Amino acid sequence: MGQHSKPAVGIDLGTTYSVVAHLDRDGKPFTLANDEGELTTPSVVFFDRSGTVVGREAIKAAEFEPQRVARFAKRDMGEGFYHRPILGNQFPPEVIQALILEKLKHDAELRIGKFSHAVITVPAYFNEPRRKATQDAGRLAGIEVLDIINEPTAAAIAYGVQQGFLSATGEAHERELILVYDLGGGTFDVTLMEIVGRKFNAIATAGDVHLGGIDWDQSIAELVIEQFQKEHGVNLRKDEVASETLIDEVIRVKHALTARDEATLRFAHAGQRLQLNLTRKEFEQRTAGLLDRTRMTVKRLLKDAQLVWSDLTRLLLVGGSTRMPMVQTMLEQESGLQVDRSLSPDEAVAHGAALYAGVLLSGGEGVIQSFAVRNVSSHDLGVMGVDPATKRPRRHVMIPRNSPLPCKKASLFKTAKKNQKNVVVRVVEGGTDAGQGATPIGKCVVQGLPPDLPLGTPVKVFFKYGTDGRLDVRAELPNASCDATTVIERAVGMSRKRFDSWAERLSEGFVIEEEHVPEEPVDVDEIEGLLDEMDGELEVSEDDSEEEATTDAPPPSKRATGDAALDDFLKEIG
User: 17-21, 292-296, 490-494: which range is least confident on average?
Assistant: First the structure.
């Protein structure tokens, strides 16, 4: 279908700022300004008495009524609720993100007309629940999410297509091995990308979804809070209005220290004033620990990929926080490479997403480049069961971290006791072999088993992991003659009922209630069932037999989108 009927739109849904881009008639990505004429939109929501306000105006309102403002909701994605109530109301983070996406979509449509499809980006280190939450936020905002693409991958596409190390037909002149260092407002990712011909292959990824520019901001804010307490005996932490005003001044000073060696911070509260001179060196010393966290993550990534700096051909910086001189200095000292700043760190991710959307929509009119993208899993995905020897919890990894996507995996387990009434496959992400630190994803329940089922009855578990980092699980008992059914119950994210309820509220023009209106609680029993459902336990041992099938992504010309694409692909590989 032509680009006129389906514009190729990419959305960088950021922690602090968001950006929308689309492909013009010549197939080139172009950033769409918002209704205020700005290329970036603050990811801030103000819950006014008559509706919601998103963006720059919401930041201004936050200084007067901070209790009505939601910031940094991206960090809460995958959780049941935003990290604090708004006027006593609990909101799922998907709802706050949906309100931001509604603003982005509305403003973009003023420029390019109506559209319903878009590619949305996420940090490469987002786990499966966070990716599902992002898709749900898009759907709540009336967007059909073509795909979820990792931010570093999108940035590599933008750099590759636009900055000359790809030919006019979208092929690499020679093999490129690129490290993308992505330090945004709220998250950090580092990804190794290989570009061969028209294939963009992620090799490995690592990151920290709770590390970003706002942590550098907080370090300056803490310095001001300490000094204000010392000089005036006032604790600014107890005043929300003061905290909002302070953050804006801190951000201004941080930006100033990017451009020059010294800046003056001026802050007034309740008739008391503070003026503080801060040098770039002092700022860098105070935040050295944050930068070291990124340094160690990069080192770990290279070690995991069995590569050294000299193996790389390019070092790309993405994300507004990479403008801080300390980032470039550290990376160039570590790598011996000169960093590539050929595109705006704010716009590159959205541009890459728009290019990818163009491919998924068959290119549209005027799109010359065609390419294939393959990502890797950011976390181990596995099954929790019981060790037959120790009777303690044990994890079996089905899909290891950094496995190429899409992939399909099957493993054979055994029932843990006689006469089990059901089999519960407890799916987890990350964690140790004992399950410590693992994130519960959900459970796959096989019901309707025959009576007198013997101990050790084989149970085959299948994992299908899509290019967008979304997981499908099923289980079967190959030796049991029964009409068993498989039921998937998710431990995290919005249930269908909860999603439909919020979709209706948003479609009617959502207005916050002035008094506390309790949101329908998450089904705690369902979540606890992941740990307490012992009747259906699986035995997990070291010698579980495995079957695996992993292939390259299908060519773009044959590629569908969403679940249909994954289903078609899995049919091809059996």
Answer: 490-494
